[in-house]
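To whoever picks this up:

The parser on our side crashed when reading a file containing two proteins. I've narrowed it down to the boundary between the first structure block and the second sequence. Both blocks are reproduced below exactly, byte for byte. First block:
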Amino acid sequence: MPAHIANIKAQAARAGRAVRTVINPVIVSRDTEREANAYADAISRNAIKGAFGGFDSDAHAWRGRLDASHKQGLGLGGNIEIVGTPEQVVEQLAALKKAGIDGVQLGFYDFLPDLEYFGERILPLLKQAGLRL
């Protein structure tokens, strides 16, 4: 990814422009790695009912996408999937920053509860790490 980002920014510079790179990961996080992976697996199987105000997931549209950017080929959406504990999510976001990503547009499966979890469990860790999104 760093070489790809450098290439994008170099092309922009040759055109007299400066650009910032943004990626849109889908965040799947729970207190334990086992819980996070089980939740991600359930999403990819479209086995979680009641999310989206009673509508089923559109994760089936992504099923089978096996490129390296999609963890275990789950196909949850976004450019990449970040699955893990809050600490693992922070590590993965820090790795994206180190790779040259300037910002993220976060996505979640069941947006409101997953966003609340992010705010309560992950955001404080990001602040402790001095990582700005």
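<<boundary where parser fails>>
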Amino acid sequence: MRVVVGEDQALVREGIVRVLERAGFSVAGVASDAPDVLRQVRAHRPDVLITDIRMPPDLTDDGLRAALEIRSSDPDVGVIVLSQFLEDRYAFELVGDRAEGVGYLLKEKVADPAVLIDAVRRVAAGDTALDPDVIARLVGRKRVGSPLDDLTPRERDVLALMAQGHSNVGIAEKLVVTVPAVERHVTGIFSKLGLHQSASSRHRRVLAVLRYLRS
């Protein structure tokens, strides 16, 4: 698996590269600013791009802009963005209307190599890897008269894991319950939130949840 890493802080960049190489990934290129991120991806055609959101030249959301451009022009490249801050709008903007092959992680989580490695593998496989803290904040955000108030604590747990991109089997493993139990919770969640449940892919399920949480 080939990965391009975009990060302007040299120590953080080298740490990410070391974790990836130890896990058996090939780091095809590194970049320290957003324009170079675009150049590296176009030159090496990696399976996954990992990039910080705040990068030169403007040190605002240049990395996110580059990631969005890559998702638009090169949909086969999985994209993971790293953020130092808990910004739910970044997650919404990054996912957009396509939940396949996308990840959003807080930088502090990357200190755990297993988290980064798992995210890279999931995104490379076309799945979603959204930071649990971001999703938890969205699920727990105060709303006036929201149907979320009608969800049980267990349904909230299931909703959060759905939004992170986990399948029913994955949710069952996380919560140590049976798959049929998860399916009952999912049915209840969609019913209470007024979301249409169909036999569509897990990506559409993630999008449905995020669209609701965005509202």
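After patching the parser it read the second block fine. The CA atoms of residues 23 and 34 lie 26 Å apart. The longest strand covers residues 26-31.
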